[in-house]
Amino acid sequence: MNRLSLSIFLCCISALPVGSLMSQSQRNHGWVVAGTSSKLLIQGKEILNAKDEFRFKNPEGMSQIQEIDYYLMLGEYYLRKKDKVGIANILYDLRTKKGEYAFADFLLTSLWKQSQGEEVQAVKVLDTYIQKEPNTYFRNLAKNMRTNLFQTGEDEKKSMIRMDCQKTKPYYSLCRVFRLQYYIDLPSGKEKDMHKHFVNIMRVNSPFFEDPNLEWIPLLDRIDEDLPAKLSFLGFVREGIHLQKMIMDLERISDGFVGENSNERMAFFQILLGDYPGAEESLLNFLRLTKGKKASILNRIYVKLGALAYFQKDYKKSLDYYLKLDLNNWSADIHHPFLNEPMSISGVKDLISVSLYKVNGADAALKALQKIKDPEKLTEADIWPKLRISQMLMDQNPELSSRMTDEIIYMAQEKKWRRLEYAATILQGYNQIYRKEFRKSTIELTKSRGILDEENFFYAAEFLRNFGFVFAHTASGKKGPVNGNIRDGVADYLQNNLYEDLYYIRNYRPLAFSTDLFFEYALSHLRDDNDVWGLLDSIYKYNAVKWIRGGKGSPHSLLQIQFVDKQFQYLSGFSTARESKFFDSTYADSRETESQIQRKTEEESVRNLESAKLPTILLLPYKDEFYLFTFNPRESKRNQLSWKVIRSQRPDTSDVIDSVRELISSSKDADTVQIYLNESGASLMRSLKKEMKETGFIFFFSLLPQTEVQKPLNVFSWKCPQNMRSLEGKGMNLVETAYFEGSRILKEKERLHLWDFQANASSVNSVTNLSWSCKSETGSYEEIPFLKLFRRIDYRTVPKMVVYTERVLGKSWSDYSWHYNWLHFWFRSGTKKIGYLPTLPVLDAGSVSGLADPSRYREEGVWIQVTAQ
């Protein structure tokens, strides 16, 4: 394979080793792949294995439901293997049995005829069953299966019949899949009550992670091979991956390997989830199957691998993958990973040049770019590398860079290449700062706002435009009206910071103007202007970004929807051709609508502090110092919010303590002070409680608006644990597991949930793996895993208040991050107040209701409200 042109373009870059294989999780029901062996399990019991080549065996010692599962699972294997004898053995057995086996017989018969190309006969078999079957449940199963197997049309939705599924009935797993299909097809993309749809989808999805009977869905690849994609486009990518793994495991069992299509599709889902090492391994698995394949196919995968490594900031590995490209055999159907549009050879060289710049500097990248030859007739794709040259030249030769950029702007305007004009205009705005043409800079940046039309608006980079205004005004030495630009720029950066590195590629971000530098300039301007609200807004969001970036793993349950929506906005080019039909589907529209709904309900504003009734403290770290903000509701509007910089790395330094004393004394009658809950705030409170015992200190978690009307709360807890049972009849409402974990809905809305259960020792290695268990009065074992709470708690089941003890997390309050993640889960789910006690005191009928009283937590405990009071 000739890669000479790319080798010259890149010079010589050494190869790097690749990551390890993904581990395969074990299931106890269905097909299991374990290393080189594989087996079929029914409820944990091994029935067949690869050593006996999965030859048909009469089921023994099984219930009717288990036997039907066995026939369907073995049937799906024989269908993939086109094993006529195997299918015949199953059908013979089914027809000699008495009971509810008829649907399995007709279904497998229909599928076999379909696999033999006898489509008309396949439909006729199911139609015959539907006409003759008197039982509504079995008839609806057959109707839904017919819809899945034989309904065609452009609309990806299916007209499913809603089913109620019971474990005591056969075909339970098929019923559950049909029920899920029904619910994911209900939202039409734009409804106002979209959140209710998503809550319902989450509930219908949940059993697939929790019910041992649903660890395997027989015939899933036949029922709806696109079901994982539909879930992922809705935003439920964890659920999509869960089902995709089943489809891939059946391929492993029957074919001996996972096909290219499945590996590439899985890689896209893993990218949407934020599992980049897993995605890389899936793409490498694809390559292991492609010996002798066309160079254009290999190129597609190597472009994805190079872009994926770049996105993870492993620039050397990115170049190593790019070096494997064969540009002499380029294909027009290879898409840009970060723009999801066809990519020319000039486009891929432009993409590579950024990785080359990151590794070897601007000179090497410029030399490579300058080797790109212009065709006789220039297209927009041919001009982008010239803008890249201008971007990289800016540091060393701003004059030449400016002239080049001007030429590009004029050409783009003439040809109506809006994205090119937009990127070049933003770049020119920054270039003029270098050239000390500050007025021209602000003109360019102002012009850029009106360039993009609706079709290209996804390409906008508002924080770059707003940052540019701040840089220009600060560098000019003149005091400019940039407070609004700072506010808008910081707000946009909060939403898109995870993708900051892509702005160098997508938007030709000037290399010298860093975000850190922007915050320095912005904070300096706001301090000089004494814009204390703007200062608080910027520092608050700066800290929010740090917390987002410090998070490990992506969100679960409904909290994943916003994250996945952002991944689609920036990384949709990693998709496969099979997903193209879903980008304009109602699944995508519904995800975007739900993401917007969630974002609006979680929008914080520092101005919400203005309605606070209590003296308020926010201690926000910035680099090696703290910004201390105090809000005094007793002062005049102009003087309510004050600030000072604490030049210390200790949050409880005497300077901070003195400021709190001053706030308390100026607040006169206030006997309670609220502190913003972050790590420095938690550390400060420990000192304040010792220093000022006469004052009560509480936390608030966010700057959301106050919406809650105070109402009396009834106390509820889990009926199962022994220590809770003793409180029955003492003002405590004890409920079954399903109600306490959120699986079932309690009619009482004004509830306080008491948690005082020991975390299982095996689960205390991470917050999300926590679980709590007990033996009930009947002797049965019951468990609440935290991940089940993630899936189950929603606006209909969340309590207004939670009280918990140290036993619940197995960590004291000083282990801040564990408690913060626990609080974050409850507050984002809709809880309004949380109380923490190291240990639960002896409770009686009189003291149970006192758990909802803030004064109960004044000495030993901690009281946290979702927002400032």
Runs with pLDDT <50, length 5+? 1-24
Q: Total helix count?
A: 36
Structure class: alpha/beta
CA radius of gyration:
31 Å
Largest sheet: 11 strands, mixed
Mean pLDDT: 90
| Overall helicity | 40-55%
Distance between the termini: 68 Å
Biggest β-sheet: strands ordered side by side in the sheet? 6-5-4-7-8-16-15-14-11-9-10
Account of the protein in words:
By secondary structure, this protein is an alpha/beta fold. 50% of the residues lie in helices and 10% in strands. The chain has 36 helices and 16 strands. The strands form three sheets. It has an eleven-stranded mixed β-sheet, with helices on both faces. A three-stranded antiparallel β-sheet has the order 1-2-3. The chain has a two-stranded antiparallel sheet with strand order 12-13. Strand 12 and strand 13 (781-785) form a beta hairpin. Residues 1-24 have low confidence and may be disordered.
Helix and strand arrangement:
Blueprint: H1 4-10, E1 30-34, E2 37-42, E3 45-49, H2 64-81, H3 84-95, H4 102-115, H5 119-132, H6 136-150, H7 172-184, H8 194-205, H9 207-210, H10 220-224, H11 227-234, H12 237-255, H13 260-273, H14 276-288, H15 295-311, H16 315-322, H17 345-360, H18 362-370, H19 380-393, H20 398-415, H21 418-434, H22 438-448, H23 462-476, H24 483-496, H25 502-506, H26 515-528, H27 532-550, H28 560-571, H29 586-601, E4 616-622, E5 625-631, E6 641-646, H30 654-666, E7 672-676, H31 679-691, E8 696-702, E9 714-718, H32 722-725, E10 732-735, H33 737-740, E11 751-755, E12 771-775, E13 781-785, H34 786-792, E14 801-805, H35 806-809, H36 816-829, E15 833-837, E16 862-867
Parallel strand pairs: 4-7, 7-8, 8-16, 9-10, 9-11, 11-14, 14-15
Antiparallel strand pairs: 1-2, 2-3, 4-5, 5-6, 12-13, 15-16
